[in-house]
Amino acid sequence: MPAEIINGQQLAKELRDNMREEIVQLKETGLTPHLTVILIGDDPASHSYVKGKEKASAEVGISSNIIRLNADLSEQELLNKIVELNQDDHVHGILVQLPLPNHIDEQKVIETIDPAKDVDGFHPINIGRMIVGQDAFLPCTPYGIIQMLKSKNIVIEGKHVVVIGRSNIVGKPMGQLLLNENATVTYCHSRTNDLKSITNQADILIVAIGKANIIDSSYVKEGAAVIDVGVNRNTDGKLTGDVDFEDVKQKASFLTPVPKGVGPMTITMLLANTIKAAKGLNKG
Ligand code: L34
After folding, report:
1. Which residues carry out catalysis?
2. Quick one: CATH architecture of 140-263?
3. In this model, does residue 284 exceed pLDDT 50?
4. Ligand 1 centroid distance, CA of 158 (Å)
5. Fold for domain 30-114?
6. What 3-state DSSP class applies to 160?
7. What is the 233 CA–ligand 1 centroid distance (Å)?
8. In sequence order, which ranges of 133-252 are alpha helices (DSSP H)?
9. Which of 76, 173, 224, 262 is the least buried, fewest Cβ under 10 Å from its Cβ?
């Protein structure tokens, strides 16, 4: 039987419907959650994702603004802007869209954001809290993937999860969140020996490599749940994941599509984190 497709867009819609109702109530108490996004330069993919964040915010009643900055701004100018937003009580969430121009130190930027406004969950304080199991802003993509697995009642506890990719924004926190859910976690990456023999042991396979269609059914154990985090654009602008969808569909039990899979859930968890920030739930 072909895999059941986990529709991220549909799940995102359901979660956003609930958020909209919650925000109506927050507004009655005089609180309107506000997200500020900083977008630097003119990378078309970043523009598209940020537009998605703006649209989704409006959809649930979160007020948002985008600060568009030139790619030639200095690192100090950016840090000053962030400090200003940290001090603005009207701003609950701050997000600096990545990647940044090469002359700007990404880690410095992340560490300048007030951890209580770090709706991406990238600040080391939030990462540390996540690891020790304290209340924290969780990174949106891994957080969204956990929601996708739970929405289909896919058992995580005791299962062998293999994560391919070790970025700070997806792979590393993904493994950690799954560990917090009592999975047995293996990380694989570009230096892993005999990748296939490891991925073939995975009950749940998370693919965050960044190469179009590279994971075919020969990497997948019969009946595994496969989550495709890749967003690759081919020359005519068409989006594809890291997973060979048609091939893996024949072998997996669950599979996420690209588009309309993990992407819309990333944005949805950003909305959830912004509501949490507005409610002041992560002030330590
Ligand atoms: N600071 N930078 C920061 N936070 C993030 O959480 C991100 N990310 C990643 C890139 N840089 C970031 C995103 O927002 C990737 N990402 C992201 C967000 C949304 C979508 C994809 C990646 C998304 O909505 N994808 C749609 C298709 C959108 C399109 O057509 O361009 C989908 O259905 O997959």
Report:
1. 53, 97, 120
2. 3-Layer(aba) Sandwich (3.40)
3. no
4. 30
5. Rossmann fold (3.40.50)
6. strand
7. 12
8. 140-151, 171-180, 195-199, 245-249
9. 76
